[in-house]
Automatic annotation (TrEMBL), chain A:
<feature type="transmembrane region" description="Helical">
    <location>
        <begin position="6"/>
        <end position="21"/>
    </location>
</feature>
<keyword id="KW-0472">Membrane</keyword>
<keyword id="KW-1133">Transmembrane helix</keyword>
<feature type="transmembrane region" description="Helical">
    <location>
        <begin position="67"/>
        <end position="91"/>
    </location>
</feature>
<dbReference type="Pfam" id="PF00420">
    <property type="entry name" value="Oxidored_q2"/>
</dbReference>
<dbReference type="InterPro" id="IPR050601">
    <property type="entry name" value="CPA3_antiporter_subunitC"/>
</dbReference>
<dbReference type="GO" id="GO:0005886">
    <property type="term" value="C:plasma membrane"/>
</dbReference>
<feature type="region of interest" description="Disordered">
    <location>
        <begin position="96"/>
        <end position="117"/>
    </location>
</feature>
<feature type="transmembrane region" description="Helical">
    <location>
        <begin position="28"/>
        <end position="47"/>
    </location>
</feature>
TrEMBL record, chain B:
<comment type="function">
    <text>NDH-1 shuttles electrons from NADH, via FMN and iron-sulfur (Fe-S) centers, to quinones in the respiratory chain. The immediate electron acceptor for the enzyme in this species is believed to be ubiquinone. Couples the redox reaction to proton translocation (for every two electrons transferred, four hydrogen ions are translocated across the cytoplasmic membrane), and thus conserves the redox energy in a proton gradient.</text>
</comment>
<dbReference type="InterPro" id="IPR003918">
    <property type="entry name" value="NADH_UbQ_OxRdtase"/>
</dbReference>
<keyword id="KW-0812">Transmembrane</keyword>
<feature type="transmembrane region" description="Helical">
    <location>
        <begin position="303"/>
        <end position="324"/>
    </location>
</feature>
<comment type="similarity">
    <text>Belongs to the CPA3 antiporters (TC 2.A.63) subunit D family.</text>
</comment>
<feature type="transmembrane region" description="Helical">
    <location>
        <begin position="466"/>
        <end position="486"/>
    </location>
</feature>
<feature type="transmembrane region" description="Helical">
    <location>
        <begin position="204"/>
        <end position="223"/>
    </location>
</feature>
<feature type="transmembrane region" description="Helical">
    <location>
        <begin position="6"/>
        <end position="23"/>
    </location>
</feature>
<dbReference type="Pfam" id="PF00361">
    <property type="entry name" value="Proton_antipo_M"/>
</dbReference>
Amino acid sequence: MEALFAIAIGALTFTGVYLMLRLRSFPMILGLTFISYAVNLFLFISGRLRSGAAPIVGTTDTPADPLPQALVLTAIVISFGMTAVIVMMSLGARFEGGDDRVDGGSDGPGNRPETTQ
Amino acid sequence: MTGDWIIAPVVLPAALAGLALLFARRNLGLARGISLAGTGALLALAIWAVATTGDPQVYRLGNWPAPFGIVLVLDGLSALMLLLTAGLALTVLVQAVTTGRDRKGPHFHALWLFQVMGLNGAFLTGDAFNLFVFFEVLLIASYGLMVHGGGAGRYRAGIAYIAVNLVGSTLFLFALATVYAVMGTLNMADLAVKLAELPPGDQALMRLAAVLLLMVFAVKGALVPLQVWLPGTYANAPGVVAALFAVMTKVGAYAAIRFGTLVFPPGNAATGNILSDLILPAAVLTMAVGGLGVLASRGVARVAGYAAIASMGTAFVAIAGFTAPGLGAALYYIAHSTFAGALLFLVSDLVTARKRGARLPGGLAALFLVAAVAVAGLPPLSGFVGKLFVMQATADHAALIWSAVLGTSFLLVLGLSRCGSRLFWKADDAPAPRLSAGELVGPLWLTATLVGMTVWAAPIRAHLDGIVAGLLNPAAIIAANTLGAVP
């Protein structure tokens, strides 16, 4: 199970970093989301990987560590909120600036995406 | 400040921000009253905290004993940073109100209070994961403040700012998960105790965690090569917001000092001097990048942003050794550069609010001169005293550090005088405009603070040396946590 977790976290991080380096805001935000999924899994197993163990002493032979579960809940809520903020900000930049590039450049008038104006 | 009052600097702005959101959405006067009263009360609390600085004191959230619950720790350094935040926030808030910058978008005052709440919490907390949470609170408020007033350039710079900081937050979580997996605790005092007893097999993992944490603090503190987000953000943010952000980079420096003295003290068995070894070259490069950036920039806001980078380089150079004289110099320079940087951003705000190419008031030129002298570190203002302290503390590496500090000051003098002459030195027959009284409040207040820091430099430094002596004696903070004891 350790190998499965390690590969999953690695693949999520790899995908996230690749997408984050893209030119436009949508893949970049997807990349940030992938990386936050990776870190949530990483936080979750920082109390060691155990299956079938409850986080309450006395219910199973070896109890699971409850703290990483609390930490990961906090991290999920925060990354969810932050994703919402950056989505709103990208929409603002897209409609105020006319394109969705995140590298500081701008699309020429010829290949600008269709706007709703 | 004792007992339950320790949590007041976090709870008060949180409650008032909620009130401002609920009852003052359409009533700007009420919102102004709430935020001015709140920030004023925070200043009073911070003065009380500094005046009664003594042994570190601990507040247990929910009365859970450390290290199982979260604790807030008030020591000399926290009290100093609270004072710095509250003093700057009140000055800049008054300026935002008198110049009407808070009218340009909704919820300015609620975001302002949340921002101050996050800063205060980050300075008070004694728990590493709680530090992450307060980082996120201050960041999410700063995202809102950064795009206050809107505009394409602001949104675009805002996305870059958020993306860099989200990556920084993710790194922080990776570091904290590593720390928890190795040590089984996130209370900073408990970490300090357990690090000394760490088996050699786990030491490499803690070195990794220490470097990851340093990267997070480097993002916050704009240390090269992680400074790229700063110039665009500060240049595009509204001037009053950029002035408040002058204290945000100091959060990175604060966290580096806190972890470098308490959790990873220099020369400990697990991480050795890894923090010093990494900070010193990065700080020298930061100064160089800041100085060259000032020389290469055109707009006054960008110049101010790069000057902020150079000032962080100077502060980190003094921090790098984690010695008593170095930290004392760093704290003085951090306080100075917060106020000097904020003054430069307020001046830049007053310049950019006027029509491009129009004749600027003579008073504004005088204020720019004061800000430039303070930022570049020329006599007679506190920047000179601060750089003198830094150079005294780094005499061991004089060849490298002194030439970097002096070379950067030279670049700053060149860049700022070029920027000032291009703005103000014009032949023009138009009648000279004047600054309104409202525009003068904040800059004059900050100038008075800088003059005060210069005149009373010796007593201030003596107080700071007392704080540093407390920092270098982590046993007091660890004892205050009463680890494992049920209250």
